[in-house]
Amino acid sequence: MSEEPQWLTEREQRAWQAYRRMFLLLNSRLARDLARDSGLSEPDYDVLSVLGSSPGHRRRVTELADRMLWSRSRMSHHLARMQKRGLVVREECQTDGRGANAVLTPEGVRTIETAAPPHVASVRRHFIHLLTSEQIDAFAEIGETVVSRLVDGAQGAPDS
């Protein structure tokens, strides 16, 4: 016998629907601006920004995939496309012959340095400037709480 679902209250439903709608609209707007301003897709920008903020502009491919919540296969295919465009290269990992590093090329560094300012302006225009200082703090706390619980809950979960 299955339990009766615990439906969301009106207040909870309002919060959930507001989040879902905001997530879809904001991501769509930011992706459109990013493509218009720099010709990059969100995945391109994510890879470039993670590598750009990594020591030596490099990161293990497996770590990059894990950070972006991608399969290793998806990451490998995406890096191959970016490599053809001259944005990244793959290098053998010096400490582990089985692994590889994704490394920004000089063109990749120029690309992220050029793309970042208009992208940050878009984030400010469509998100940050719409909120009060208190709302930004609350949003950060909410996001950090949910992420922490999801990450902690995944620690013991088997890989899918």
From TrEMBL:
Coiled-coil annotated spans: none
Domain of life where this protein originates: Bacteria
Name by which UniProt lists this protein: MarR family winged helix-turn-helix transcriptional regulator
PROSITE patterns named in the record: HTH_MARR_2 (PS50995)
HTH marR-type domain mapped to chain residues: 12-148
Pfam families tied to this protein: MarR_2
UniProt-listed SUPFAM superfamilies: Winged helix' DNA-binding domain
SMART domains in the cross-refs: HTH_MARR
Entry-linked PANTHER family: MARR FAMILY REGULATORY PROTEIN, TRANSCRIPTIONAL REGULATOR, MARR FAMILY
